Amino acid sequence: MATKNEELRVLVTGASGYIGGHCVVDLLRRGYRVRGTVRGPGKRADVERLADRAPGSQGRLEIVEADLANDRGWAEAVRDCAYVLHVASPFPANVPDDEMEVIGPAVDGTKRVLAAAAATRGGVKRVVLTSSIAAVAYGRRDSSDKVFTEDD
């Protein structure tokens, strides 16, 4: 007999990232079916290995390709999902010259995810959106030894 959580699918955007990976493992451990997004096939194996950290989760993790910079794949990614954890965010290797190099793609990607979730016509019950460390760490003179909190 299936548990209540096993009947629910959660989409985790950015499943190959640090936060996304932790979300995937936690959800699998709690019995949810998880669909994780990756930008391309190069990160698929990394996400597949996350199931090893959640014993008994075989068959409950699915990986799909969807890039925040492109509309392709988002409708399929949210299909049959009750919840969306949008934790994907562009993260530049270096501090950008212009803050919009990070903000623009992050906003556009979030709009894509929200539009796809809204288009399910009631299928997605809740979307949880997180931010990126780039939102508080870049552009601050005191960030090298600062502990960031919700106030930041």
Main pleated sheet: 5 strands, parallel
> What structural class should be given to the helix and strand makeup?
alpha/beta
Main sheet: which strands, in order across?
Answer: 3-2-1-4-5
Anisotropy-based shape = globular
Oligomer: single chain
- Strand proportion: 15-25%
Please tally the helical runs, counting DSSP H or I stretches of 4 or more residues. 5
What distance separates the N and C termini?
46 Å
Percent range for helical residues?
Answer: 25-40%
Average pLDDT confidence is: 89
Features:
152 residues, alpha/beta, five-stranded parallel sheet, 5 strands, globular
Quick synopsis:
The chain has about 150 residues and is of the alpha/beta class. The protein has helices at about 20-30, 45-50, 75-80, 100-120, 135; strands at about 10-15, 35-40, 60-65, 85, 125-130.
Q: How does the SSE layout of this entry go?
A:
Layout (H helix, E strand, L loop, with lengths): L8 E5 L4 H12 L3 E6 L5 H5 L12 E5 L8 H5 L4 E4 L13 H19 L7 E4 L4 H4 L15
Parallel strand pairs: 1-2, 1-4, 2-3, 4-5
Description:
With 152 residues, the chain is of the alpha/beta class. It contains five helices and five strands, in the order E-H-E-H-E-H-E-H-E-H. The protein has a five-stranded parallel sheet with strand order 3-2-1-4-5, sandwiched between helices. Helix 2 links the parallel strand 2 and strand 3. The chain is globular and about 50 Å long. The protein starts with 8 loop residues before the first strand and ends in a 15-residue tail after the last helix.
